[in-house]
Amino acid sequence: MSFDNKKLLAVKDLATTFHTAGGDLPAVGGVSFDMESNQTIGIVGESGSGKTVLSRTIMGLQQRTNVTVTGSVLLSGFEMVGASEDEKRERWGTEVAMIFQDPMTSLNPVMKVGKQIDETLRVRLGMSKADAKARAIELLELVGIPSPQYRYDAYPGQLSGGMRQRVVIAISLACSPKLLLADEPTTGLDVTIQAQILNLLEELKERLEMSVILVTHDLGVVATRTSRIIVMYAGRIVEIGSTREVFAHHRMPYTRALLESSPKVSNASHTRLTTIPGRPPNLLKLTQGCSFAPRCSYATEKCHVDRPELEAADEPGHMFACWNPLPKTRRTVKK
Ligand SMILES: Nc1ncnc2c1ncn2[C@@H]1O[C@H](COP(=O)(O)OP(=O)(O)O)[C@@H](O)[C@H]1O
Ligand SMILES: [Mg+2]
Hints:
- The chain folds into 2 domains: about 200 residues, 3-Layer(aba) Sandwich (Rossmann fold); about 70 residues, no CATH class.
- About 0% of the residues have low confidence.
- Helices cover about 30% and strands about 20% of the residues.
- The longest helix is centred in the middle third of the chain and has 18 residues.
- It has 12 helices and 12 strands.
- Helix 5 crosses helix 7.
- The structure holds adenosine-5'-diphosphate and magnesium ion.
- Magnesium ion (MG) binds next to helix 1.
């Protein structure tokens, strides 16, 4: 078997199943994709589609019991699935770091923000107290916090939501990760602050030569900021391709429904957020067919009994899983 050591990330047949009182819950089922260095890719999908569980599984951050992970996550050639806590810890922060969905809970409310950055630097990089403080101030400056030497002594509660998220980003960058997983990094922030944080991530990616996985339920967030998009439903990839192709020539009806439910970035505050009709699937009772079939106006009998696998669309790298895909849209011929 050959595997490409140069790939930053190669995920293959990754599945995460929680063993719950109600039965086995396949939160992620058979996900495969890979990623080169210096890219930003997006993972999108409705709430509950498995984005956070997939991100945490890639990090190797799972609860210790009642969960089974199978498949492979190669991070710069190192297998994270089945690795020991020590082996994973060696890579957290340096190879891969994650910004969690809720910035409020990732900060300690009773500890000065500067100290929270210091701690990471001292524990992970073995820095002296003075060096860690100097570096922490540099990091606060890097993420655009004004007067960083004063903010160093602030408590999280003394900062605005946007500033707190900047602190969370500073902590994630402390050990210069090659890959940053940003799980809904702007959810809960108001629209102008959202744009600022997303711009900051983009700028940091360029400056620090990082790669970023931007995880969001909102296609508007990834539209202009990613080169590739992974669309998830019920724990699986249902469409994947270059961002341009997925926006312009998507074939999976669910992708279209997501696009239609996304507020337009340009006038987000004036657009009402619609939701996709029907209910997200119950993962404890998945049928053999396409999980989206019960909500899909194109579904036929086959869709309810037979699950479609990903198949190639026109553009290389563009794939979709659907028995009755949307018709190909007309391409403008370049002259
Ligand atoms: N620790 C857990 N135990 C059992 N089920 C879980 C656990 N974590 C997540 N899930 C379930 O896995 C599914 C995917 O969740 P999640 O990855 O958080 O979705 P998303 O991030 O796309 O909103 C959901 O049905 C959720 O209820
Ligand atoms: Mg989530």
